[in-house]
Each structure stands twice: as C-alpha cells, then as structure tokens.
Amino acid sequence: QAQLVESGGGLVQAGGSLRLSCAASGRTNGIQGMGWFRRAPGKEHEFAAAISWSGDSTYYADSVKGRFTFSRDNAKNMFYLQMNSLKPEDTAVYYCAAHGRSGLRTRLYEYAYWGQGTQVTVSS
After folding, report:
1. What is the per-residue pLDDT across 4-21, written as a single tens digit (0 to 9) for each?
2. Which residues are paired to 106 by β-bridges?
3. How far apart are the first and last CA of the chain?
4. Structure confidence by residue, pLDDT tens digits, 50-79
5. How far apart are CA 77 and CA 55, in angstroms?
6. How far apart, in whole angstroms, are the C-alpha atoms of residue 77 and residue 68?
7. For the purposes of burial, counting CB atoms within 10 Å of the CB of 88, is it exposed (0-12), middle (13-18) or buried (19 or more)?
8. Which of 84, 109, 85 is nearest to 97 (CA)?
9. Pairing between strand 78-83 and 68-73?
10. Nearest to 6 by CA among 40, 48, 37, 31
11. Which residues in 2-91 belong to E strands, given as ranges?
C-alpha cells in the first residue's frame, strides 16, 4: 500500500504562485505515474496534471497548461506542482494521486492511491 501526503496549499492573490508537494511512501514499487486532481466547491473532481514515475513525461489539462508545472525530485519520492499566474477559478482542494497503469492517465478511476488533499484559495 502506498501513502501520499500533500502539502503547500494556502491563500494567494490572483496572479500569485504556490507550490504543492506530494510525498510518496510505503509500497511505491508498483507505481507507474502520478497525477494532480482538484475539486472546486460544488463541482466534480477535475484532472489537472499527470507525470510518469520517472518524471520524464508530463501532461496537462488545457485549463492549467502553461501555468502549472509538474515535476519530480529523483533523490526522494517527492513530486511538486508549481502553480503560477493563479486565477480565482483555480480555487479548489488539490489531490495527489498515484496509479500502476502504463502511460499518463487523466481519469479518476485509473488512480488507485490518493492523498488527503490540500486547499488552494485564490482571491481576486
């Protein structure tokens, strides 16, 4: 069983930046990729970004492309979501997730492991 713990959320003004972290621990040897999803109040989970376990490949939702960067620290099992040029519509709880399937994945059901979430609030 893998465990994921997010950190780094908070309150920021529009146009600002935040960096979310995701620490992966436990049985990670079967994990093939990671993802970030978000859930805004009253809305369903939305895919934001995906990365391969090695960190070599990434994929972004159109809504965050060019503003968010998903990366990995290879020395540790740490993953980061750098969020720049934040907008009020980015306000949501952000969840880190992991899967054991091949390729980059964008659907909720494809991910087997989830963190507890971290709140990001962007004020206008």
Report:
1. 999 999 999 999 999 999
2. none
3. 40
4. 999 999 999 999 999 999 999 999 788 899
5. 11
6. 20
7. exposed
8. 109
9. antiparallel
10. 37
11. 2-7, 10-13, 18-26, 33-39, 45-52, 58-60, 68-73, 78-83
